[in-house]
Amino acid sequence: MQRAIVDIEGLYLLGDPVAMVVAMGSNSFNIYRLSDAMSQRGYAISQCQLPACIHICVTLRHVPHTEAIIQALRECTAEILASPAKPGEEGRGAAIYGVVQSMPEGSLDSMLSKYLDGVYELEQPKPSSRL
Fold it and tell me: Could you tell me the residue ranges of all domains in the chain?
């Protein structure tokens, strides 16, 4: 899989995979578009950030389908390169990760903390008047 990714125009391999997780990025397009396109074909490709990339964890279940996955990666990448995104079409993952990356340090922790505090306050048992 990693040899095939290196040969696909528009993609590059992240790191030097020695196990089963193969990560890829792109300097030619928003990589999250590829994740979305693969998802539409029924393949689950995980999205990552810092740097923006996607990865697939190749397991024994994937082995019989490796060639089909590689072919889908080739076709989706070629389609994306042939039709650049218009504004607002960056991909679903780009919206989520883009917002998180642009938030000031600590903002997400603060926001989640307030959310979780509110959830836990709602779930606290109310004192019973019947004892």
Answer: 2-122
Is the domain covering 2-122 a CATH 2.40.50.140 domain? no
Burial call 89-115: b when 16+ CB within 10 Å, e when fewer = ebbebbeebeeeeeeeeeeeeeeeeee
Specify the amino acid at residue 111.
M
Put residue 65 in one of left, alpha, beta given phi > 0 → left and psi -120 to 50 → alpha: alpha
CA atoms of 35 and 15, how far apart (whole Å) = 19
Whole-number Å distance between alpha carbons of 36 and 29: 13
pLDDT in tens, 21-62: 999 999 999 999 999 999 999 988 889 888 899 999 888 888
pTM as predicted = 0.67
pLDDT tens string 50-99: 889 999 988 888 889 999 999 999 999 999 999 877 766 665 555 455 55
